[in-house]
Amino acid sequence: MIPSLAVVISTYNAxxxxxxxxxxxxxxxxxxxSIYIADDGSGPAxxxxxxxxxxxxxxxxxxxxxxxxxxxxxxxxxxxxxxxASEDYILLTDGDCIPLPGLIAAHRRLATGGTFISGSRxxxxxxxxxxxxxxxxxxxxxLGSLLKWRLQGNINRLLPLLLPVYSxxxxxxxxxxxxxxxxxxxxxxxxxxGFDESFEGWGREDSDLAARLLHAGxxxxxxxxxxxxxxxxxxxxxxxxxxxxxMLRQCLKQKRIRAIKGIEQL
Length: 266
What we know:
Layout: E1 5-11, H1 15-26, E2 34-39, H2 44-56, E3 62-66, H3 74-84, E4 89-94, E5 97-98, H4 103-110, E6 115-118, E7 121-123, H5 126-135, H6 143-151, H7 159-162, E8 166-167, E9 181-185, H8 186-191, H9 205-215, E10 219-224, E11 228-230, H10 241-254
Parallel strand pairs: 1-2, 1-4, 2-3, 6-10, 7-11
Antiparallel strand pairs: 4-9, 5-11, 6-9, 8-10
Helix pairs in contact: 1-2, 9-10
């Protein structure tokens, strides 16, 4: 049993998406968790969404951790949140990923010492993503709606949404990591010194974190069932991806455990 659990939601100037994501967490079957918004420099509209959620859901503690907008600094804002959080177990996700109602309960049940969990996602089409944001209301996640979305081509997969929740056996593979659905004990994140802020711009900071957890002897288990629903959005710039790929290769070659520029360097 996990003594305490935190959801860390990264966001940047996407208040309509964040509204839908937070509404998903308001409808969890297990409500014993905290939320940390890892805000990479959003404007006032994001603050308004967070304040409205706090007002409507007073039983859920919501912490808004914000720094100024100075480019893509997801690794740094994550490190600030991890350093501040007091919860034992941390679910890392994004402000464009709607949870199913049983997500928190699934992570609480599957978490075990010496491992981290890699979850999956289902992609929502551009048309449906824009429609949901325009409506700005509660998203119907019932089986009928999910089936209809699949028949209309508005989600790319149905089977992960129908599977009972279970986890794979522990393993050491890195491929297939999704930073939008990754959970770890906070103590293990501190062991590897959090995210490596040496990674600039979009790409590979999540894989680097997972690789260093594996190097530290913390094994990976894959969650089947209860994927997050990933809202469509324009891709981030990939201009630094080649450099970030090189840094990830170096991390793997060196079997490095600790981030070069991580929580201790804040």
